[in-house]
Amino acid sequence: MSVTPLARIENPKGDLYHALKSSEDSFSSFGEAYFTTVGVGEVKGWKRHSVMRLNLVVPAGSVTFCVREPRSARTASITIDSANYVRLTVEPGLWMAFKGNGQGLNLVLNLASIEHDPSEVESADLDTFDFVEDESASGDHR
Predict the structure, then answer these.
(1) How far apart are CA 27 and CA 13, in angstroms?
(2) How do residues 95-119 score in pLDDT, each as one tens digit?
């Protein structure tokens, strides 16, 4: 996984939030873009994609992502919100879950490398792995 700082350009009529450029190293291809929401205290996941690369941005609210490497059982987490506006790139083969922190709208944008294909994703029960919230991820963790 890798974490990329993103530009937020302030404007009195409304801010502009960068998400992903095709010239960036974390861009491999474009399959689809979709938004999902997560309620405060709710956890979605665990999912592991075999092909899809996730590029996750939180344009509204606060969301903690927990990513687990299955071979080493190494787990890292990162909270993305207006104070830490970054893009989280999750490579295929990693387990991922996320939790809503904000009282209002917690909105996640995924700029996925392929279109949704149910045959390339595996799901696990929420209690399969511990959801770690205190290990901060920053920089490149590929």
Answers:
(1) 30
(2) 999 999 999 999 999 999 999 999 9
Radius of gyration for the chain, computed over Cα atoms and rounded to the nearest angstrom: 14
- CB 61 within 8 Å of CB 100: yes
* DSSP symbols for 76-100: EEEEEBTTB-EEEEE-TT-EEEEEE
Residue that has been written with the tokens 């490497």 in this structure: 69
- Decide: 135 and 66 in contact? Cβ < 8 Å: no
> With the C-alpha atoms ordered 26, 27, 32, 37, is the resulting torsion angle positive or negative?
positive
Are 57 and 111 a contacting pair, CB within 8 Å? yes
**pTM for the structure as a whole:** 0.88
